[in-house]
Specification:
Strand content: under 5%
CATH topology of the largest domain: Growth Hormone, Chain: A
Number of helices: 16
Mean pLDDT: 92
Radius of gyration: 20 Å
Helix content: over 70%
Number of domains: 2
Shape: globular
Number of strands: 0
């Protein structure tokens, strides 16, 4: 297997930077909650701030991913995380909505640009699938630590501590990139060639599956309460979800890399996701709902690890995997809005039906990628 060798330091830089860049995926509940409870914003305003961060990241990824092989990835990643750190530290000194909105947008754009460099480098590694799985394990561990520590820190030091912690995470990523990041071979000979149909179909399949996951997962806690499940049981399911995400999907994806065909995994993944979505949105028995809810996100993580390795193989230039932030965060930004609209107007059971339809679209794209 050919590819870039990064060594211990270079690998550590990519893993740390991945964790910083995907911070929104693990800190979202605490982030929105702090904006509502600590800063006094309405749920819609709080969601709008986080959406600005996500859209900034998507925009940056769309802009820089196609130009990956024309950019010094080490410098871009270092500057991106440095700018994000400054934006979050500045946010910790502000309380006005306009100021925080601007800083969220700047932070998101900076993170998106930096993370695209990181994912592009991972895609050019000797074993992109395994390295992405390692990064997934690491972010699972960070998620457990942050979700446990952030609420306590904000109780002790107030809401601005949220942004100080975010700033510190970005600063660590900035320093790690500055010291250890290794620029992969650029691959100029193929850097400007159009991406193939199989690559685009795979990108669409991932983006749609991510949207599906965000649409349903955003309302797991709400659905649990509407079903009159015990509050401590719903909380326990969410805690279990964090533990499951750490110990199950990424390690399992790494172990099964050579035992399962990536093309087959990405075709089956959306169907399993849809089945779990139907159960989560319609089950009335807690003993059925809780374990399915706990494993719901793991389906996405497991499938996307195989999809990442598949994209890296289909596009050796690294441009496709460099667009990973756009694929993930556009779904994270749009999924809650659509899910909220469906739930409010048709009941949350409608999310299950919508998830089935969306999963069919995702499967179609993955199937077309296999035959393209």
């Amino acid at each position: 297997m050919t590819g870039q060798k990064y060594g211990v330091g270079g690998t550590a830089a990519l893993v740390v930077s991945h964790c910083a860049g995907m911070l929104d995926l693990i800190a979202l509940p605490v982030w929105v909650g702090a904006l509502v409870e600590r800063f006094g914003f309405s749920p819609q305003q709080a969601g709008g701030l986080v959406t600005l961060f996500l859209l900034g990241a998507v925009a940056a990824s769309v802009v820089v991913a196609p130009r990956l092989n024309k950019i010094n990835q080490k410098i871009a990643a270092t500057l991106g995380y440095g700018a994000a750190a400054l934006a979050f530290f500045a946010a910790s000194t502000q309380s006005g909505y306009i100021e925080l909105a601007a800083l969220h947008l700047v932070a998101g754009f900076s993170v998106g640009a930096a993370l695209s460099m990181v994912h592009g480098a991972i895609g050019k590694s000797v074993n992109p699938h395994r390295l992405y799985a390692l990064a997934g394990i690491s972010i699972g561990l960070l998620g457990i630590v942050l979700l446990g520590a952030l609420p306590q820190l904000m109780i002790a030091f107030g809401g601005p501590m949220l942004f100080r912690v975010f700033g510190c995470v970005m600063a660590v990523a900035c320093l790690t990139c500055a010291i250890f990041f290794i620029n992969p071979a650029r691959g100029e000979a193929h850097g400007a060639a159009p991406l193939g149909r199989a690559v685009w179909f795979t990108i669409f399949g991932i983006s749609i599956m991510t949207f599906n996951q965000a649409m349903v997962f955003s309302f797991v806690e709400v659905i649990g309460k509407l079903r009159d499940f015990p509050p401590e049981g719903v909380l326990g399911a969410l805690i279990a979800l964090g533990v499951v995400n750490f110990i199950v999907p990424s390690p399992l994806a790494a172990i099964l890399q050579k035992r399962l065909a990536a093309e087959r995994v990405v075709q089956i993944g959306p169907a399993v996701q849809a089945l779990f979505a139907v159960i989560v949105t319609s089950a009335t028995a807690f003993v059925l709902w809780a374990p399915v809810a706990a494993f719901f996100v793991a389906i996405q993580i497991f499938t996307h690890t195989f999809a990442f390795g598949l994209l890296a193989r289909l596009d050796p230039t690294g441009r496709a995997v460099a667009a990973t932030p756009a694929m993930l965060m556009i779904g994270a930004a749009l999924g809650p809005i659509v899910g909220g609209a469906l739930g409010q107007n048709f009941g949350f059971g409608a999310l299950g039906a919508a998830a089935v339809l969306v999963s069919v679209a995702s499967t179609i794209f993955f199937s077309k990628a296999r035959t393209a």
